[in-house]
Every structure is written in C-alpha cells, then in structure tokens.
Design a protein that fits this description.
Layout (H helix, E strand, L loop, with lengths): L8 H5 L3 H31 L6 H55 L4 E3 L5 E3 L3 H4 L4 H45 L3 H7 L6 H9 L8 E4 L2 H10 L6 E4 H11 L7 H18 L7 H8 L3 H18 L1 H11 L7 H20 L5 H13 L4 E6 L2 E6 L22
Antiparallel strand pairs: 1-2, 3-4, 5-6
Length: 407
C-alpha cells in the first residue's frame, strides 16, 4: 500500500502493478507450504508417544500444540489477505490504465493541454488566446477546449481518487488481519530491546488498531472551517480521532473555533520541529524528522501545547486515537506514544509557559536522554533513548509493519 506520501500522476505511471497481482498466488503457495509442514510435524510429534513419554514428552507435545495453533492462525491470516490484495491490485490496474489513456489523450490534444501531478488539466493558452477569428468561431473553440479539458481532468482526478480511496479501504482491512495475528507470532518477528526499560516501553506503549477509517470533517463543520480556511481539505483518520475532534468542536465557549486552534498548533509543532536542531544540515534534518530527534520534538511540543489549550485528558484521548492506524510498526507506535506522554507532562507542569519556553523545555528533555527515538539494529528497527543515537543518524521503520497490539 502507499506510504503516506502524495499519490501523483507520475508515481502511478511508474507503478509495476504486476507484482501486486502476483502476490496473492505467492501468498497462497506460502500458506499451503506452512500448513503442509505443520501438519507433517504434528504427525511426527503425536507419534513421539511411542518413544518419548513422561513429563518431558508431554511438555513437548503441549508446547507444540500451542505453536501449531499459532502457525495455523498465521496460515489463516495469510489466506485472509489474499482476497483484499487481489481486489486492490485490480482497482490499481484499472486506475493506472485510465491514467495512462488519459495522459495519452492530453499529450495528443490539439488544445495544447498539459497535466499537473495532482490531476489538474490545463491549457497553455488562455481563453482569450483561443478567441481567434470571428466571435462565434472563437466562442465555439473556447467552449470545446473547456469541455475537453474538464472531461480529461475529471477522468484523471477520478482515477487518482479511486486509488486513494482503495488505499484507505484495503489498508484498513489488511491492518485488521495483521492485528489478529497471534501475539507470540508478532513478538517473535519484532526486535525487542535488550534494555529492560526500553523493552517495557515497547510493550506498554501500544494501542489496539481502529477498525474504521473515516474522512473528517464533513458537512456543516467542514463548511464552517472553510469560512476561515477556504483551502482546507478533510483528511482520512481513525474513527476515534474523528470522534475526539468532533467532541472538541462541540466544547464551549469556542465550539468549532477550537478546531482552528487545534490545526494552528499542529502546524506550529511541525514548523518549530523543523528548526529545533539548527546544528543539523538539510539532509540530517530530514532524517531527524522521520522517527528521529526532531520527530520526538514535534510530538512532545505538540502534546505540550494541546495540553495547555485543551487539557491533558482530551489530549491523551486524541493522540492515542491518532496512533490507532493499524499495522503501525511497534517501534514507531511506542516512540510516539511515549514522547506524547512526555510532552503532556511538560505541558501540565508549565501551563502558563510561552511557546518559546515550552520549546526550551522540550529540547532539554531530549538532550537529557528522556525521549525515545528509533535506531537501526541488525534485525530491524528498535527504540532507544535520545542520547544513544546522534541527531540526524536515526532510522525509519517501514510505512506499515507488524503491530505489537495494545494493552
């Protein structure tokens, strides 16, 4: 599935959908192999009663029964995701075909048309420039250009929207399958830190995935937001996130204006995080913003400011819901939830602090080894304390990965 970056025309044109179309067959083959091997091993273990009895033999067979159930549950999970993958690959194939055909028509058009990455179709000539010859001919020509441009844009943006919608819908389905994997299977595949405190953080700072993704806001609330932010676009989020924001929009005395403050704090946190480590160059700053020290800064400052404005209880509810995306890599989820809590503690202890004072408090917490970031280890990505990795020298987990499960 997509990794959160924008779905653009060029990106789709470069897609190799064939690999996604082959994946269900490969997964079915894998599931059959695992099931065959497990059942063969089961027969061998059961036959071991003839030569391996007593407590040790019984303990082995009991343990195998547990592992057999986990393995067969994994087979069921693998089998369950083949249908959604097959369906979404078909949607992606149809959408890509539509985009390829539409781009070809745009490039072959006599109306000097071109497209932008977000699917807009425009003409290199203005309406007045198409008004050549007599008035009637010019109007007819201009209308023809506009009809063609509008139709091609609708097709291009419609295909991009189909991809975006399918990505959200089917990612949620796959997330639920991954969340349903046996705990022992997930833990066996997730690197656990050797440091006991980090291992505790990894296990304790997890949330269960939401089973519903929605687009928020909509209707009257969206219309009200666009009164002060005309270009505002709703976003996909968990149902729990949307519920928390709807509750915030209903809180007196500011009501919907609370959302204006909320989004302003969100933008503010991103902006200050980008400059929180001035000693880093541009490349290192980008690394630090992706599950590194600057990302920790953003989460902590964001939570501190929201705690000042909306209180720690609502902030906890919202930021926990924000992490319920499903298939969220365990290390990233633990990092974000842990740093969120640190930020709320800073906000609670400094309710009247200025933004600049909060920024200083957050940076001090990171520099004193209190925050958590992600580093690369031989078997994957793992959380570590902020002084154990240099800013700009951290690691980023995949966009989706095995979740650890909530508490």
């Amino acid at each position: 599935m997509t990794d959160g970056s924008a779905i653009t025309v060029t990106k789709v044109l470069n897609w190799n959908v064939s690999s996604g179309e082959r994946l269900p067959t490969e997964l079915d083959s894998l599931a059959n192999t695992i099931e065959t091997d497990v059942e063969a091993a089961s027969r061998d273990v059961q036959n071991s009663r003839d030569y391996f009895d007593g407590e040790a033999g019984d303990a082995l067979r009991t343990r195998f029964d547990t592992e057999r159930r986990d393995a067969l549950a994994t087979v069921d999970a693998i089998t369950s995701i083949t249908a959604p993958i097959r369906e979404v690959a078909g949607i992606f194939r149809s959408a890509k075909t539509a985009i390829v055909d539409t781009v070809r028509e745009i490039e072959a058009s006599d109306y000097e048309l071109f497209y932008t990455e977000d699917g807009q179709v425009l003409s290199r000539k203005s309406v007045l420039e198409w008004m050549t010859g007599n008035l009637l001919t010019g109007l007819t020509q201009s209308l023809s250009v506009e009809r063609t441009r509008s139709a091609l844009q609708a097709r291009l943006q419609g295909a991009l929207n189909d991809i975006w919608t399918a990505d959200l819908t089917y990612n949620a389905k796959l997330n639920m399958v991954l969340e349903g994997l046996p705990e022992a299977v997930r833990e066996a595949l997730i690197p656990i830190p050797s440091d006991p405190e980090l291992a505790r953080i990894l296990r304790d700072y997890q949330v269960n995935a939401s089973d519903t993704t929605v687009v928020f806001p909509s209707g009257t609330l969206l219309d009200m937001i666009r009164l002060y932010a005309p270009d505002f676009q709703p976003k996909a989020m968990t149902q729990e996130e949307a519920a928390a924001l709807a509750l915030l929009a209903a809180q007196p005395p500011d009501g919907p204006l609370n959302l204006k403050t909320f989004y302003a704090i969100q933008d503010e946190a991103q902006a200050v995080a980008e400059t929180a480590f001035p000693e880093l160059n541009e490349t290192s700053t980008k690394v630090a913003l992706a599950d590194g020290h600057a990302d920790a800064f953003r989460h902590m400052y964001w939570n501190a400011r929201m705690t000042q404005e909306f209180g720690p209880e609502w902030t906890t509810t919202f930021t926990s819901a924000h992490e319920m995306v499903g298939s969220n890599p365990a290390a990233r989820e633990a990092m974000d939830l842990y740093n969120n809590q640190l930020g709320r503690e800073i906000g609670t202890q400094n309710m009247n602090a200025t933004p600049e004072e909060l920024q200083q408090k957050v940076r001090e917490a990171i520099d004193s080894n209190r925050a958590v970031v992600i580093q690369s280890v031989p078997d994957g990505r793992q959380i570590t304390f902020s002084n154990s990795a240099e800013p700009g020298n951290t690691a980023t987990p995949p966009g989706a990965d095995l979740p650890l499960g909530g508490n």
